[in-house]
């Protein structure tokens, strides 16, 4: 199944105009130009989500088509104040996870996935693992590189390094790890709280 959308040829030349509110209103009225603008504005984003999880171009195209099909089916439930970008990204991620779970069922025995690492998230369902990993990863991407490296070393390194090992690895004094950790955790909480 390939990526298909009415008016796709017009998208290449289109210029993104209009707020999400305008686009939702136009789509609800059945305006072709509004659909073209939605596609122009969000097609790359939606396609990039399954690709970022390692899905093939064909599977990513399937997820994209499904995501925009669900948008058509869900238009009546969207308000004009809806955040279309976040809504589309959430739908795309959920269907990406489903495609990945289906792929894992078809290819048993693959244990190298971060979401399959038992020490990271315990006994939660695979879709919940992916959602938590994605949420945490997005939060970590919004803090500084030194904070990201420190938090990953402290909380996500399976080897559970000591402060001395972290100090050597990150070239920072052992005595500054605790206070820096507190500041970095606060920044991460702020980043995650804004989602």
TrEMBL record:
What top-level branch of life does the organism fall under? Bacteria
Key words, A-Z: DNA-binding, Sigma factor, Transcription, Transcription regulation
Record InterPro entries: RNA_pol_sigma-70-like, RNA_pol_sigma-70_dom, RNA_pol_sigma70_r2, RNA_pol_sigma_r2, RNA_pol_sigma_r3/r4-like, WH-like_DNA-bd_sf
What SUPFAM superfamilies has UniProt attached to this entry? Answer: Sigma2 domain of RNA polymerase sigma factors, Sigma3 and sigma4 domains of RNA polymerase sigma factors
The RNA polymerase sigma-70 region domain is annotated at 40-105
Please provide, alphabetically and separated by semicolons, the GO molecular function terms listed in this UniProt record: DNA binding; sigma factor activity
Q: Which family does it belong to?
A: Belongs to the sigma-70 factor family. ECF subfamily.
Q: What is this protein called?
A: Sigma-70 family RNA polymerase sigma factor
Taxonomic lineage of the native organism: Bacteria, Bacillati, Actinomycetota, Rubrobacteria, Rubrobacterales
């Amino acid at each position: 199944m390939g990526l298909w959308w009415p008016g796709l040829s017009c998208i290449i030349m289109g210029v993104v105009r209009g707020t999400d509110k305008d686009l939702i209103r136009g789509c609800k009225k059945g305006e072709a130009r509004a659909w073209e603008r939605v596609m122009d504005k969000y097609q790359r984003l939606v396609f990039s989500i399954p690709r970022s999880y390692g899905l093939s171009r064909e599977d990513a195209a399937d997820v994209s088509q499904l995501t925009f099909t669900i948008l058509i089916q869900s238009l009546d439930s969207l308000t004009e104040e809806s955040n279309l970008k976040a809504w589309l990204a959430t739908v795309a991620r959920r269907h990406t996870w489903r495609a990945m779970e289906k792929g894992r069922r078809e290819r048993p025995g693959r244990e190298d996935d971060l979401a399959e690492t038992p020490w990271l998230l315990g006994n939660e369902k695979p879709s919940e693992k992916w959602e938590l990993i994605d949420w945490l990863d997005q939060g970590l991407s919004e803090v500084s590189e030194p904070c990201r490296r420190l938090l990953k070393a402290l909380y996500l390194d399976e080897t559970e390094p000591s402060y001395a090992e972290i100090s050597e690895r990150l070239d920072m004094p052992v005595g500054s790890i605790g206070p820096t950790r507190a500041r970095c955790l606060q920044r991460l909480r702020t980043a995650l709280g804004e989602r």
